[in-house]
Amino acid sequence: MKRKGNFSIVPKLFTIKFSVAVKMLRSFLKLFREKLGKRHFEGYDHMKNFGLIYFKLTPLCNLRCKMCGQRGDKGYLKGQHAIEESKKIVPLETYKKLVDELSYKKPVYYLWGGEPFLYPGLCDLVDYIQKKGSFCSVNTNGVLLEKYAERIVRDQWHVIFVSLDAFREVNDDIRGEGSYDRVVKGFEAINREKEKQHSRFPSMGIVTTVTNKNYKDLQNLAVACKDFHIDWHIYNLGTYTNDEIVARHKEFFREHLGIESTCLESYNTGYNEGIDGVELHKTLQTIHSTDYGYMSITVPNLNPEKTHEYYHELNIPVRNHCIVPWCQASINYNGDVCFCADYDEYPIGNIKEQSFKEIYNGEKANKFRHELDNCPGGIFPGCIRCYQNMLFGKKIKGY
Length: 399
Prior knowledge:
By secondary structure, the protein is of the alpha/beta class.
């Protein structure tokens, strides 16, 4: 059975509520148009195809997931550093002003962190975004869902993505003791409130990052999820790199963008090593061909025969021609505007100091676009397994 990709979410939303699905589809069409269109640089209003914005609300997190590029084994926001950085978070009113500025574009909003529920104004921000007519999704580790279940359902949140990596024992080894059961209690609380309030929202999904610690347990999780009343389960094949790629990426950024790149090293974890691509393919094939009562999605939607290569031949790209700087942006917790959600070391401006449109059309933004466009395949050396490029990049023939 053919694996489903991320765009399969839209048809599913149409079965839940037409108006909400239209909001998401409108932005996806902008992204698709940008993928097919001509590259623009200076003298062009890049807001024309702007369709997706990430808010990385806080550097703080209440879990320590081993493979996480922020707070994991090699994360760049570990310990006291994250606590100091949290003093720089963008206040709610600044976010509201940005939402007001972007209201004519009605982009899709993706709120994450760290753990977004540790941002003090999260619920008010989601409510404000949705009342301005935009589609909003929140990615959480799920351990605080139970606490906020009543308001989440009352405010009709559009989508919640919950990170869960395996069944109880394996998941807790990766994410922390007790984390699995706390997520289950969160799902139960949301579902109770949906029944009590006679609501179909929020739509709920699980995101599982595939590593060498959980790939043999994916089917056990898939079966367990039947009881959670979710709408979809996304299997993220993971962001991985190695010493050679990191070195080439650092050299390129130093020479072409004048900065010392550090974030990519956080994904040089080795959690791809030892994954048996044949076995993983068989597991995913079983999952995709089984009706668990929800939709299963794999990102990237890869040719199954290339699964082993994805994890063991990291120098071979499977997606290229990144479109992100022409239609998306990420707001870091300190207000810096970046293009790459996972790599925030090249800010093109700060929303505390300038309007978003000025930043997005500015000199630094266009320099980044030029350097990316001039790279072989339209991706930087370190972006071969970038999650955003897996979502939105051009599929290379055979993969």
